[in-house]
């Protein structure tokens, strides 16, 4: 059973009744009244840590009610003031700084949050849960190296800490230390510790197991599905809208985007020729795939639209193709997708993987397709490309690609919004 935190110092115990009365208002949702009550207490007893903390909580509640970042900043400042007062109980220092760090993260102030978390670890060096939070703080600013050091320290102090294990495994996997990452991710998930039951860890453990050829991957995908993290064992995207029709392969008619498909197929030679021209003249515009999805080989892409934003410079190289696409906002406005050329050389294998979201469908237009040796699997079905024809699949389902032909394969990729998304959702869903 968790011990109740001690929030009152000697002085605050003498004004407990007044503090309780103000807190009761806050608990009842009378936020403005609670704030006035705590402000009065702070004015009367400026060195009362509990009154100051109550004021910060009330400002925090009011910020949520008003949806005001300005009020939230006030709360952050007040949480910080609590800590600088004399004789503050250590439990109250922890609560204040943890909440301050959390609210800073909410406002996107990751570096400020990191400083707050560092202060916590400095004040309470033996508390591994605070070190775990600091590790997350480093990960949020993309500083995997410092995060790794933090989790190594936690695991030295507490070798069975499941939270540290899953995060340490996650970092090892990001470093492409696939086999090393597996025991940490697995043991961390098996611990059942708070913060470990997260779709990302099931996703990365399964992916690591697949890459070493271990069929146990699907056991973890199944568990992730049962825990509600994945839509199914095969559909494992993590940024989803619930209730959208889900199937690996689609026909043009099912998408409703028949005009776009007709236009792509009718103009495929134009799209191909502009692509080949760019490939020959400006090979540097084709950038190697950088998401660590290849087991082996050479796979490069030339992107025209990314997250609904047009790359004007790229479109200068393929002006007719870009002009053709401008008529189709379901593609150019798809902020959760891309429009790009993709060239894959012989001897390339792309690991089984899933896209990040179920909010898009992916069209592949065949441009230069060798007679044999190229195939794509989505879920449990293999297909091949044809020159001048569009294949449509939902890349939130597991898919895998093999290029074992004698020559290169060139396709044109067009992502479109999932047809069941409303106009409002298309406008407001954050970009991916």
From TrEMBL:
Cellular component, GO annotation: endoplasmic reticulum
Annotated ranges, domain Aspartyl/asparaginy/proline hydroxylase = 265-419
Identify the Gene3D superfamilies for this entry.
B-lactam Antibiotic, Isopenicillin N Synthase, Chain (2.60.120.330), Tetratricopeptide repeat domain (1.25.40.10)
Q: Where is the signal peptide?
A: none
One GO MF annotation is: peptidyl-aspartic acid 3-dioxygenase activity
State the TPR repeat positions.
128-161
List UniProt keywords, sorted A-Z. TPR repeat
* Keyword Membrane annotated: no
SUPFAM superfamilies reported for this sequence: Clavaminate synthase-like, TPR-like
Q: Would the keyword Oxidoreductase be found if you checked this record's keyword annotation?
A: no
Which positions, given as ranges, span the membrane? none
Record's family? Belongs to the aspartyl/asparaginyl beta-hydroxylase family.
- What is the recorded name of this protein? ASPH hydroxylase
Q: Which organism is it from?
A: Odontophorus gujanensis (marbled wood quail)
């Amino acid at each position: 059973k968790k011990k109740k935190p001690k929030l009152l110092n000697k002085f605050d115990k003498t004004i407990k009744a007044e503090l309780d009365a103000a807190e009761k208002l806050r608990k009842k949702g009378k936020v403005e009244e609670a704030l006035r009550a705590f402000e009065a207490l702070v004015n009367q007893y400026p060195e009362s840590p509990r009154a100051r903390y109550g004021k910060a909580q009330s400002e925090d509640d009011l910020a949520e009610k008003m949806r005001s970042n300005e009020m939230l900043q006030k709360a952050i400042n007040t949480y910080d003031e609590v800590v600088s007062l004399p004789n503050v109980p250590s439990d109250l220092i922890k609560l204040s700084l943890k909440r301050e760090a959390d609210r800073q993260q909410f406002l996107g102030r990751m570096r400020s949050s990191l400083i707050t978390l560092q202060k916590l670890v400095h004040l309470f060096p033996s508390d591994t849960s605070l070190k775990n939070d600091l590790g997350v703080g480093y990960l949020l600013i993309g500083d995997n190296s410092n995060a790794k050091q933090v989790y190594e320290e936690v695991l030295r102090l507490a070798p069975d800490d499941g939270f540290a294990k899953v995060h340490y495994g996650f970092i090892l996997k990001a470093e492409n230390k696939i086999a090393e990452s597996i025991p940490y991710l697995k043991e961390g998930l098996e611990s059942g510790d708070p913060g470990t039951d997260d779709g990302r860890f099931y996703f990365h453990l399964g992916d690591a197991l697949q890459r070493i050829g271990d069929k146990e991957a699907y056991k973890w995908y199944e568990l992730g599905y049962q825990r509600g993290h994945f839509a199914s064992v095969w559909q494992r995207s993590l940024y989803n809208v619930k209730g959208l029709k889900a199937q690996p392969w689609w026909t043009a008619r099912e998408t409703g985007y028949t005009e776009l498909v007709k236009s792509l197929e009718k103009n495929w030679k134009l799209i191909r020729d502009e692509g080949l021209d760019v490939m020959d003249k400006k090979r540097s515009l084709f950038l190697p795939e950088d998401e660590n999805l290849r087991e082996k080989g050479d796979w490069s892409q030339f992107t025209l639209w990314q997250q609904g934003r047009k790359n004007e410079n790229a479109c200068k190289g393929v002006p007719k193709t870009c002009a053709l696409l401008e008529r189709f906002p379901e593609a150019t406005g798809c902020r959760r997708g891309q429009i790009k050329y993709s060239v894959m050389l012989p001897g390339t294998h792309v690991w089984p993987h899933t896209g990040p979201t179920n909010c898009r469908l992916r069209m592949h237009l065949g441009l230069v397709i060798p007679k044999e040796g190229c195939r794509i699997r989505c879920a449990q079905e293999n297909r091949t490309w044809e020159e001048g024809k569009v294949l449509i699949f939902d890349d939130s389902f597991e898919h895998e690609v093999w290029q074992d032909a004698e020559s290169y394969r060139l396709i044109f990729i067009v992502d479109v919004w999932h047809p069941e998304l409303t106009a409002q959702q298309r406008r407001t869903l954050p970009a991916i």
